[in-house]
Design brief:
GO terms for molecular function: oxidoreductase activity. By secondary structure, this protein is of the alpha+beta class. The protein has helices at about 10-20, 35-40, 50-55, 60-70, 80-95, 125-140, 190-200, 215-225, 250-255, 275-280, 295-300, 305-310, 320-330, 405-425; strands spanning about 1-5, 25, 45, 105, 120, 145, 150-155, 160-165, 175, 180-185, 205, 230, 235-240, 245, 260, 290-295, 315-320, 345-360, 360-365, 370, 380-385. It has 14 helices and 21 strands. The strands form 5 sheets. Strands 11, 13, 14, 15, 16, 17 and 18 form a 7-stranded mixed β-sheet that branches. Strands 6-2-1-10-21-20 form a 6-stranded mixed β-sheet, with helices on one face.
């Protein structure tokens, strides 16, 4: 049993397989597992978890699925919305039994969520999440082969995957056989040609994702004749700090902060979502905006390690009056949007741009994460989840509900593992 990719999706798959008594190998291109997960905030949405129950948070799979579907305006694949909404709580509860101490972020709601359901480790970073999953996977007995860049899938005349060909350090080439293959590897945000073709509005955007998102899963699928879906879906972010190059939490916007352009104008409704905000920000003069907020929002922002690091690098500017804020932004004080009156003084500001984080389209899969052909039939032993597969954000940037990326990774990995275990058991 082989898994391509050692991010959250691949590691959750490995943990679930080992829980089922299945031997597996994770093939990771980097020397240390990271992927898109390590670049995220590490927040996973789930409904009906033990952690929520302990906090008295009433949530349900039905409510969660409705929120996912509503954000995507009905465009998200219904079979995956339901499957992922059902699976994520079970996955997090089991990871809790392995020692991952999840907390629920209960002091604010992310756009589109009606209930506090965003789960995080205490560190509140994707790096911590990957490290914890890596530790559990190794302790559970999964084999992890790093610096192993998969180059192609080896299949027979009946489209059964026999194994993979990979490149090792020094240019050595190897082949590894497998009974079932799970693609848990990547999207295509790091492939400029595919971005220009499929996401033209992001062609000039900063790519803030992992370099491994080179579209290889899509290219392998195309070579096999697999179906692709939702290639116009992606996670953007309208709060990429420049020039420091860091992610600023959107919690500041949800708690009353505003975004102003270089003319001092508020140009959109920040509560609609940080993904579509990327397009709005890029449409402003110079592709730049200013996150403007007060002391209360600053205190909240400082709860997040990414913001503290950006602040230490000089990203935060503070003004004691409107004239000072206007000087920071470069506009006339009279041009400043009236909404800033509710924030200060003092006024705090961070310069940001819109960025592309990861794509939400990919290989078409069924509710069991089996890769499909255009006619709806499935490949006999090829599964996909996470960035390699279509997600639950539909076919546009505005369909991304906060946390959809890690939802697809964790729930998808959990489902793929159980599908693989069942396929292997049926052959014995």
């Amino acid at each position: 049993m082989a898994i391509v990719g050692g991010g959250a999706c691949g590691l959750v798959t490995a943990i679930a397989l080992r829980d089922a008594g299945v031997d597996c190998a994770v093939l990771e291109r980097d020397a240390t597992p990271s992927g898109s997960t390590a670049l995220s905030s590490g927040f996973i949405p789930a409904a009906g978890t033990r952690v929520q129950e302990a906090l008295g948070i009433a949530d349900s799979v039905a409510t969660f699925a409705e929120d996912i579907a509503a954000k995507a305006k009905g465009q998200a694949a219904p079979h995956l919305v339901q499957a992922y909404a059902e699976a994520c709580a079970a996955a997090l509860d089991r990871l809790g039994e392995h020692g991952l101490c999840f907390e629920v972020l209960a002091n604010f709601l992310y756009p589109g969520h009606r209930v506090h359901r965003m789960h995080s480790l205490p560190e509140r970073t994707g790096v911590a999440l990957v490290a914890a999953l890596h530790r559990v996977a190794v302790e559970a007995g999964a084999d992890l082969l790093t610096s192993a860049r998969v180059e192609e899938l080896v299949v027979d005349a009946r489209d059964r995957v026999l194994g993979v060909a990979l490149e090792r350090p020094g240019g050595e080439h190897e082949r590894i056989a497998c009974d079932v293959l799970v693609l848990a590897c990547n999207g295509f945000g790091g492939n400029p040609a595919l971005v220009r073709e499929l996401l033209p509005e992001m062609r000039d955007a900063t790519f803030a994702g992992h370099a491994g998102n080179d579209g290889s899963a899509i290219l392998w699928g195309q070579a096999l004749g697999a179906a692709l879906a939702d290639l116009g879906g992606y996670q953007g972010h309208g709060s990429w700090v420049v020039p420091q190059g860091a992610l600023m939490t959107w919690a500041v916007m949800m708690q009353g902060g505003v975004q102003l352009n270089a003319r001092g104008e508020r140009f959109h409704d920040e509560t609609q979502g940080y993904s579509e905000a990327a397009v709005d920000v890029l449409a402003q003069p110079g592709g730049i905006a200013w996150n403007v907020f007060g002391d209360a929002q600053l205190a909240l922002a400082r709860e997040f390690p990414d913001f503290r690091e950006a602040e230490a690098a000089g990203a935060l500017r503070t003004a004691q009056d409107r004239a000072g804020l206007a000087a920071i932004i470069g506009c006339h004080p009279d041009a400043l949007a009236p909404e800033i009156a509710r924030l200060g003084p003092p006024f705090h500001a961070v310069r940001v741009t819109g960025a592309l984080f990861h794509t939400q389209g990919g290989l078409d899969i069924d509710a069991q994460c089996r890769v499909r052909r255009p006619d709806g039939s499935t490949f006999p032993n090829l599964l996909a989840a996470g960035g390699a597969a279509r997600g639950v954000s539909g076919n546009a940037v505005w369909g991304y509900l906060s946390g959809n990326g890690l939802l697809s990774a964790v729930a998808g990995g959990w489902i793929a593992a159980h599908t693989a275990a069942a396929q292997l058991a049926s052959r014995n």
